[in-house]
Amino acid sequence: MKDTKDSPEYLAKKRAFSKMLTLYGRKPVLEALQDPSVTPFRLHLATSNKPVTLLDDILLLAESKGAEVRYHTRDALSRISKNSKQDQGVAIDLQCPGFQQADDFLAAPPKAHFELLALDGITNPQNVGMIIRSATAGAIDGIILPEKGCAPIDPLVIKASAGTVFKANILRCSSLVKTLKQFRQHGTHVYGLSSHADTTLANLTSHSANIYVLGNETKGVSKEVSELCNKHIAIPMNNNVESLNVAVTAALIAFRTVIR
Amino acid sequence: MKDTKDSPEYLAKKRAFSKMLTLYGRKPVLEALQDPSVTPFRLHLATSNKPVTLLDDILLLAESKGAEVRYHTRDALSRISKNSKQDQGVAIDLQCPGFQQADDFLAAPPKAHFELLALDGITNPQNVGMIIRSATAGAIDGIILPEKGCAPIDPLVIKASAGTVFKANILRCSSLVKTLKQFRQHGTHVYGLSSHADTTLANLTSHSANIYVLGNETKGVSKEVSELCNKHIAIPMNNNVESLNVAVTAALIAFRTVIR
Measured between CA atoms, how close is B207 to chain A, in angstroms? Predict the structure, then answer.
């Protein structure tokens, strides 16, 4: 029987796939496996790999943690890693319980007044990683990360996140505009961060679920997303400083109720 | 007459020198000169430089902003830039009005209950730059930056600071331990940031001038400095995240009164 886009089988597969993070590269894969909080699902190895100790270590650790092991041609492995230049013949699917589709989150949110960040065109992996680290440590229920326009979760992001990405609540979506529309239809307020806004983060009084949109490092929040925002908010700055680093802005939002 | 360490002439020179930032490299020097808030004092060029447009641009801009121009042998220029590998035959002394010796700040603080950050072994230029940017934008009166142990203010720091270093209040000192002792003798409270501390940033009630010490990215605040702290404070974290990025911690301190 073939899965159709509406069949329970298709949706279950999609859901399981959403919770999976595929990582590549020998050192990144080994380091992920060494993290006690990480559960591997499937290890992928290229049959072209020459035997080296590092690969033995990866294989032993993956098997001891219950991962299935599969061997592929070099080409097939490239299609799994989606990065043939940096995969070094190794990829791994990790189970990330905090990963899900944004619409699944919306269908069953963990609380009425949830607080989310949404990333709109954040291209620097260092920033994406730092945002994930601060949001996971702070009072944020999830990070909406669109498939396109942002730095993908790769070894650079994982490093900058100090490994917190594996336990982060990442809400995946294909189109940020479409997802924000859905959330707004359900009463969620959407705030765009902008250094030019009149309302400040301190003045924000809200009794709803909220999404804070963080925009591109240079251009800020995109026009299409800006038009979907209920309001734009700023963080007041001294000494004519023009803007804050976007990961710092994310941290101030994530911790503003924690540090007061 | 020779200057002695106590003579008014020596102290005046030392004071003027404290306010000077020497920067090197063609692109960094040009970018600094293009910043309208930057006042150059003296441009240094190696006589070995081959004529190129970029150098003409630097020379014209420096002269139009009233800088003195001096030519040096390649070796002499290296001694000025202190980085012969990256200076590209160009260095510049910039006047930074917010730079001063930490003991000069202590002798005449701008307010009774000032708030300072102190950097103890922060070696990543990206972190030092981001800390300067957040502190300058936030409610921090100065950053104590010891001569040794931290990343020096170089092109990488300037870039990560988004150019805010030129207007930052940087309090220089030769020994952080000695400087913190002096501040404590004058009634300033010193807090070391530590993820293991019982007191949280939110619980901190203080009616004094304060210094918040940020430690090395891996090892935290050093033992000698820890012993000088009145108290250690933590920022509470969710999801068993072990630590925050040090620049994020700095931003939370700098903005905690701004965003509440």
Answer: 16
Question: ipTM of the predicted structure?
Answer: 0.91
Using pLDDT thresholds of 50, 70 and 90, give the confidence band for residue A260. Answer: confident
Whole-angstrom Cα distance, residue A138 to residue A182?
25
Strand partners, A170: A99, A143
**Are both A35 and A127 inside the same structural domain?**
no
Compare all CA atoms of chain B with the CA of A165 and give the residue at the minimum distance: B241
What residues of B are in contact with residue A37 (Cβ under 8 Å)?
A: 240
Is residue B112 located within the same domain as residue B168?
A: yes
Residue A28 identity (one-letter amino acid): P
Find the CATH number of the domain harbouring A71: 3.30.1330.30
List chain B residues with CB under 8 Å of A162. 241-243, 245
Question: Cβ–Cβ of B251/A252 closer than 8 Å?
Answer: yes
User: Of A95, A125, A149, which residue is a domain's last?
Assistant: A95
A14 Cβ neighbours under 8 A, 6+ residues apart: A101
- B203-252 pLDDT tens trace: 887 789 999 999 999 999 999 999 999 999 999 999 999 999 999 999 99
A-chain residues within 8 Å CB-CB of B251? Answer: 244, 248, 251-252
Residue B11 has pLDDT above 90, yes or no: no
Q: How far apart are CA A253 and CA A210, in angstroms?
A: 11
Domain span at B187: 99-255
Strand order across the A68-72 sheet: A20-24, A90-95, A39-46, A68-72
| Amino acid A37: pLDDT | 86
Give the H/E segment covering residue A131: helix A125-137
Please indicate, yes or no, whether residues B78 and B107 belong to a single structural domain of this protein. Answer: no
